[in-house]
Amino acid sequence: MTRFPVLTVVAALLALWYIAVIPMNAQWEYDQANRAGRDLPFGEMVANTMAQERPVLPAPHQVVVELWNSTVVEEATGRRGLWRSGSLSNRSLIYHGLITLSATMLGFVIGTGGGILLAIGIVYNKAMDTSVMPWAIASQTIPIIALAPMIIVVLNSVGIAGLVPKAIIAAYLSFFPVVVGMVKGLRAPDAMQLDLMKTYSASGNDVFAKLRLPTSMPYLFASLKVGIAAALVGTIVGELPVQEGGLGVRLLSGSYYGQTIQIWAALFAAAILAAGLVGIVALIERRVLKRMGMAQ
Amino acid sequence: MSDVAVPPVVIEAQGLNLTFTTNDGPVHALKDINLSIHKGEFVSFIGPSGCGKTTFLRTIADLEQPTGGTLSVNGMSASEARKARAYGYVFQAAGLYPWRTIEGNVRLPLEIMGFSKADQAERAKRVLELVELSGFEKKFPWQLSGGMQQRASIARALAFDADILLMDEPFGALDEIVRDRLNEELLKLWARTQKTIGFVTHSIPEAVYLSTKIVVMSPRPGRITDIIDSPLPKERPLEIRDSPEFIAIAHRVREGLRAGYEEAGE
Amino acid sequence: MSDVAVPPVVIEAQGLNLTFTTNDGPVHALKDINLSIHKGEFVSFIGPSGCGKTTFLRTIADLEQPTGGTLSVNGMSASEARKARAYGYVFQAAGLYPWRTIEGNVRLPLEIMGFSKADQAERAKRVLELVELSGFEKKFPWQLSGGMQQRASIARALAFDADILLMDEPFGALDEIVRDRLNEELLKLWARTQKTIGFVTHSIPEAVYLSTKIVVMSPRPGRITDIIDSPLPKERPLEIRDSPEFIAIAHRVREGLRAGYEEAGE
Amino acid sequence: MLVAFVAELPRKGGLMGLIAPLIFGATILWAWECVVHALGVPRVILPAPSSIAARLATSTDTLWIDLVQTFGRGALSGYVIGCGSAFVFALVVDRYRFLRQGLLPVGNFLAALPIIGTAPIFVMWFGFDWPSKAAVVVAMVFFPMLVNTVQGLTATDSMQRDLMRTYSASWGQTLLRLRLPAAMPFVFNGLKICATLALIGAIVAEFFGSPTYGMGFRISTEVGRLQLDMVWAEIAVAALLGSAFYGVWALLERRVTFWHPSQRSR
Amino acid sequence: NDEVTLQLKWVTQAQFAGYYVALENGYYTEEGLDVTIRPGGPDIAPVQVLMGGGADVMVDWMPSALAAREQGAPVVNIAQPFVRSGMMLTCLAESGITSPEDFPGRTLGVWFFGNEYPFLSWMAHLGIPTEGGDDGVEVLRQGFNVDPLLQRQADCVSTMTYNEYWQVIDAGITPEQLVTFKYEDQGVATLEDGLYVLEDNLNDPAFVDRMARFVRASMRGWHWAEENPEEAAMIVLDNDETGAQTESHQIRMMGEVALLTQGSTGALDEEAYARTVATLLGGGSDPVITAEPTGAFTHVVTDAAMQ
Ligand SMILES: Nc1ncnc2c1ncn2[C@@H]1O[C@H](COP(=O)(O)OP(=O)(O)OP(=O)(O)O)[C@@H](O)[C@H]1O
Ligand SMILES: Nc1ncnc2c1ncn2[C@@H]1O[C@H](COP(=O)(O)OP(=O)(O)OP(=O)(O)O)[C@@H](O)[C@H]1O
Ligand SMILES: Cc1ncc(C[n+]2csc(CCO)c2C)c(N)n1
Ligand SMILES: [Mg+2]
Ligand SMILES: [Mg+2]
Q1: Does the keyword Membrane apply (chain A) (predicted)?
Q2: From 1.10.760.10, 3.40.50.11810, 3.40.30.10, 3.40.50.300, which CATH number describes the C1-86+165-266 domain?
Q3: What does the alpha-carbon distance between residue D239 and residue D230 come to, in Å, rounded to a whole number?
């Protein structure tokens, strides 16, 4: 037990979840029994709450089954699955996950690049330092989900459609942590480290490449981890209004049709994707920092 | 002191003043400093905490701007001398870049100054040998003890053969035994290369053992209270510390220090 | 040495061993330490960096757990002694809490130990006077120089009158003059209060000047190479440092240190 | 972890620090106005700042009703509940190592969950009025706050903790006198991040069902009615409100964590 | 080939089957058109897309189109494939509601985003305030599903005959347990799903010609879809990028939609238009439109299409 804290906690959460399923879904069962004019024994009620088609709270195994069905099973046996049609099925979360992933990556790259450039501007330019940062913060207080449809309409009208509008929203959310982290990182060298460069009368480029950039690496990676998760959120927000596939669409279309299980499956798919992306960044971080001698 | 042909003046400060403006009002860190340092001299700065030793060294290296008086280095301004890469500076703490190996750290100034790859490797090897760090080239700073790090930072300052070596309490963090050994090494190096060295220390024996000139400073405002030209010979075995001349100089330094304290009224 | 009625043993280590397990394998920080410290003794620990001085002090204070041997303090285990609040500990760095004023920092242990408000104020005032920090009560740590911070941390350890005072290089950051003065103060305090003091230092003169017993240690593995009982009288003016006894003890300590080094083969 | 370092209002110096961003903002608004007029952008696509301002002035009643609903009821209550429970939970998690090891990775996983996806679920669970909005806000702010607080509670260095150990201070005393003060910079970081998230969360939740008022309701309804100036007026209010809410915490932070190096002038 | 972009009002579903059929069956190509169909979605305002130049023609409901026109977005109806309204209010029988007189004091779910106009007009006709209170109704902004009814957060919710109603049924509630009020039956029906373009474009004969071909092919698509509901539903499914629609639901939807389009030539019925306008104008103190619109529809396109 105590050897595997994470497993124990997960098991406890699952147990809680299962227990919560019963009261959350019970009302519906009693209503139905009422409407049918019959009694509902407790045992049957409990069993039923675990197997509703449109539960208020689906049981964990229902979500797992849905995840399995809408990935492996759909691709293997679906009419448009990989097996029969040779291409990924638009009913599978793999297909939608890939759409989301590609927009996320594009947005992440744009956001990170922009964030780094902005950070360099802030660190090297006094005017930018004093004027840009409050606006960067203010920008994050704008409810982007409210703007997303308009951004998409406007971009569509100038002929930009598909991946790019979503990626732009993703970039909008991911640039901020990168700016904050990089500004901190580029300012991380202490006075002595900077003075050392001065005694060498090193050029600005040397100071940047040999001092500021290396010191900013741990900060950069920490922000990349936040940034990539934010990019995923941005992509999903961007996908909600454009019904062209992606996990965001699955979230919402599940909601249109009251298919709670589908919402939960899409939600978990998104969380798994997020955790995977953050994990990959963490892996790269460990490698890079190790090579730089900054980890252990 | 030196009998024939006085070597040329390398560092010349006249009426040097430096006042920091802080929230709590101005701090007069250097007041009316007059000092000439000749080529090949080994000058120690000693004085209580906050008397301006570091500030003076930093001013020479153009890391601080004096607010009054003149300072010339090799006949130029400190800033020009810095741009001509005249200084090797060893900071109070080792200050190695943690993402570079020991060798990478020693190569840093060489890369910046545009030495060839081969030259870099050759010089790094030579100075690391000098500070007895051969075999640790590929280690990262945190894999070394504090004393080894400090030696690496000395190697870094030596690598590009600046004429003027400025060292701010380089041995402060070391224990007595290691310190003695590094003191001997430093003296040998100095004798061999004829560099001009400015050296800050808290330790009276260290100052006396190493220097041809000892500058005693006193705080609030930071100023020079005594300049002692050492009569000790260039060759200095460790045992010289028991000689009466040594003890006499040490005594004079201690008296100078104490006077500074009493005057400042702390 | 002491002729009549040997005071009781306060700290007793027998066959003490401590091994740290690290990624690179075990580090044998303390090996077979046997030592008795009597009530009212002033014991200095000296030895090269990494020889286990800090570790030993921390073990006494129950901040590290020995992996072998026995350690008793006042006849109890170290842990019981800690819970009985037997220790005042001064760390190598000042370690003041930056969100408390100097007075607040000194009051910290008093609050924890449940002293009354009036008692707290009175004690804080007294110990701050002792370390010459009157007038700085309301300042925050970062507004003081390193030396002042160190003194505040000493005041903090003195405030609650623990029987045993453990000090890990408390004067490392100070210059010689201030150090001399604090050494004198510490001796006076010790003479007045009859506390038992464990004191880590890098400085041979300091160790000899302060102690009734000097423990010389040597690294890899950390062990005791020499225990020197000092014949110096309890009254020690600063000039005692020029006396032949003093120089003789210093010599013995230095030889002990050097032997440790050579043996460790560095 | 991740979110910990986000959000650092620049330490602005006096008036200049306020004027520069204002000029910057004014420039952007001016450019926007020019573009809209020069290109003849249809009003239903992008209104000019002037017409947004006019709408702001004439629709204060509606804007106020929406603000009370979304910020006052949804965002604030969610913020208080979310941050408050996360803080308490952090204390519990911190108390038990097992929970810390088990819950934090799970927490990090859940924090990566795109919370907007939970909005339709919460609306289904908690109904249309503000409780479902508060629930979304709780879900959004809980993990950033938890992670920051837990990290903050471990932000003490080992020496500070050892000091408490030598006093044999209880868990509560250590928490109150050491770990909470030390955690404050992290706690405020969390509070600041959550301040920007709270309003956004409440607005997002209104997109999935709401009464017929509220900022999110207004925004999405007025887009359908092509009243884009009203939409932008709401967005402007949201941005101002969000920034002000953030600013309040930043100010408080400056007062509470005055001692932290990042809060002292740099 | 001439390019045409069509912006739908909502996501890909059988509600728009005619256009997808025309696309898949090559009717558009036969007319020399290269048609792109853009699905809509929540918070996508078709008028905005049209104004921004993102589409040439859109599907919209007449109330929101007329409201937009009054707002200065000059959209014009060029064809009207839907001749009947599919809108209704669906209530749980157990709530005790049997007629509109029972509404006061109840909570009703309504779609907003420009779709609230028919409801508001209806309530205005009934003289029921929509700000809550004892003699008014409590209005919820309902999301895109019927959960509020199933969770009993609302007594009634808005449904379309072809979509949401069946979601209620699928959720396990029988038709007997429901009471429905069709806008058609209440005499407040407004025209839904018409085709709209920007007024300026109609001055261009080439554009009118393009639209004529587009409407002709679309109506061909609609007629085919009415006759082959199952195949039409499959075509819709094939065009659904999201993969969220199910076969059975779309086939059923196609059947219901066919009831609404049946008999349409594509030309706007001026009587129905007048009725819609009257309904919208008669909104009491806060009518949807304040003045009789002029030039809000044209027959030029359908005339050209039907030659
Ligand atoms: N950047 C600065 N801004 C303001 N005051 C400064 C600054 N640097 C140094 N000072 C002040 O100038 C005085 C001299 O400082 P300096 O560092 O030169 O002393 P020092 O002799 O090197 O002391 P130490 O032996 O402690 O290193 C001190 O009072 C110090 O507080
Ligand atoms: N927590 C720890 N984990 C692993 N090794 C440790 C730990 N603490 C100390 N050591 C090792 O134990 C040995 C003794 O360390 P200690 O700090 O006691 O030395 P010291 O004599 O106080 O040295 P210094 O004079 O540098 O303070 C060293 O080799 C050190 O690297
Ligand atoms: C944002 C938004 N909300 C509601 C509707 C109303 N609506 C009109 S058609 C339709 C689909 C019917 O199956 C629905 C829900 C909309 N168009 N857009
Ligand atoms: Mg200094
Ligand atoms: Mg130590």
Answers
A1: yes
A2: 3.40.50.300
A3: 14
